[in-house]
């Protein structure tokens, strides 16, 4: 009782792999909204995105842990990874709300994801669970779609996507400096994002 409510950012994503666009967005929102913590929440399995398979959730979870480990305000939650079936943001927010009853949640999304959220059917319940913060992302237009309960924040432009990182690894192009060093090494160690024939041939340091 009487304790200050914690202000907690929630950064949901597939994180396949996590990259510096995610980390900069979280860091900027944390600074601007005076957050005590940002919880990164990798989505569960199975989740088909654009017809392609997503990496095993344990790989995505571990890369997220590696990428956030050095920041004392960043943490990673397994609520979506441990829940059966596809991830819906409403479930993520309900679970975090239950686990952190004394906190105020700030759900962080890039401009592309924000547009999708607005089209969901359970959108009204989302507003009761969290504030929404939309951040700019190169190539996507950011707007609050007329909602006054959505905050918009311009963050340094990071023209990085996980899709591009995966394509780079597949084509033997570097992902250094697009993703944290530990994530580059994790991708190489576990031979993620290679075509099946590459994995068999073996090319341990080729990230
Ligand atoms: P993919 O290409 O596989 O969709 P992604 O780069 O979009 O990957 P996600 O895991 O889908 O990454 O995104 C998680 C969240 O981070 C989303 O809200 C997304 O809009 C946001 N985000 C991703 N990349 C950036 C970026 N470069 N700048 C700002 N926000 C970003
Ligand atoms: Mg995406």
For the sheet with most strands, the description reads: 6 strands, parallel
What fraction of the residues are assigned to beta strands by DSSP?
15-25%
- If classified by CATH, what would the architecture be? 3-Layer(aba) Sandwich
Strand order of the largest sheet: 3-2-1-4-5-6
The computed structural class is alpha/beta
The CATH superfamily is known as HUPs
Pfam families: CTP_transf_like
Organism: Neomicrococcus lactis
GO molecular function, one term: ATP binding
Family: Belongs to the NadD family.
Which features would summarize this protein structure in a list?
binds magnesium ion, Rossmann-like_a/b/a_fold, nucleotidyltransferase, single chain, disordered C terminus, alpha/beta, 207 residues, 9 helices, binds adenosine-5'-triphosphate, Rossmann fold, 38% helix, NadD/NMNAT, Cyt_trans-like
How does the SSE layout of this entry go?
Layout: E1 6-13, H1 20-32, E2 37-42, H2 57-68, E3 74-76, H3 79-82, H4 89-99, E4 103-110, H5 111-117, H6 123-129, E5 131-135, E6 150-153, H7 162-170, H8 181-189, H9 196-201
Parallel strand pairs: 1-2, 1-4, 2-3, 4-5, 5-6
Helix pairs in contact: 2-8, 4-6
């Amino acid at each position: 009782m009487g304790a200050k409510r914690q202000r907690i950012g929630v950064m949901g994503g597939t994180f396949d792999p996590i990259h510096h666009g995610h980390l900069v967005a979280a860091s900027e929102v944390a600074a601007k909204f005076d957050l005590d913590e940002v919880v990164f929440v990798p989505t569960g399995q199975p989740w088909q995105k654009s017809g392609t398979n997503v990496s095993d959730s344990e790989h995505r979870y571990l890369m997220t842990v590696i990428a956030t480990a050095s920041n004392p305000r960043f943490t990673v939650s397994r609520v979506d990874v441990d829940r059966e079936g596809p991830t819906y943001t409403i479930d993520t927010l309900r679970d975090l709300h239950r686990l952190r009853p004394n906190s105020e949640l700030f759900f962080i999304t890039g401009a592309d994801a924000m547009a999708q959220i607005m089209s969901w059917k359970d959108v009204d319940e989302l507003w009761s669970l969290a504030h929404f913060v939309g951040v700019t992302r190169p190539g996507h237009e950011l707007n609050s779609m007329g909602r006054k309960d959505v905050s918009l924040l311009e963050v340094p432009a990071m023209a990085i996507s996980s899709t591009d990182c995966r394509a780079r690894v597949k084509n033997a192009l570097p992902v250094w400096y697009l993703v944290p060093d530990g994530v580059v090494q994790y991708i190489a160690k576990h031979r993620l994002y290679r075509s099946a024939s590459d994995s068999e041939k073996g090319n341990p340091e080729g990230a």
